[in-house]
Specification:
Distance between the termini: 14 Å
Number of domains: 1
Number of strands: 4
Shape: elongated
Length: 95
């Protein structure tokens, strides 16, 4: 997973740990697809968990996946969410 989204995932994990303190935390996985964070719950989740996951996914479309600064989806050979500076670095080959 890309570094810029680490704070988003950390917040999600902290939310789940606090909510399910002493209980089994819902099974979830995450990946990047089409320049967006995708969070999948496999079991034990509720509507509130889904709302938080949806918010995290939406937020990822506004956060540079490389550095965490404000960014936007960029249509490169594959879609990535990047800030202007990371986009320029990417174009120069400094991924």
């Amino acid at each position: 997973m890309v570094d810029g989204w680490t704070p988003i995932l950390t917040t999600l994990k902290e939310y789940l740990a606090k909510k399910y303190k002493g209980k089994v935390v819902p099974t979830h996985s995450y990946k990047e697809k089409w320049g967006e964070l995708v969070i999948d719950f496999r079991s034990g989740f509720d509507g509130e968990d889904m709302a938080v996951a949806d918010f995290c996914e939406e937020l990822s479309t506004k956060v540079c996946d490389t550095c965490g600064r404000p960014g936007e989806p960029r249509d490169l050979p594959w879609i990535r969410t990047l800030c202007d500076e990371c986009l320029e670095n990417h174009k120069k080959g400094n991924k």
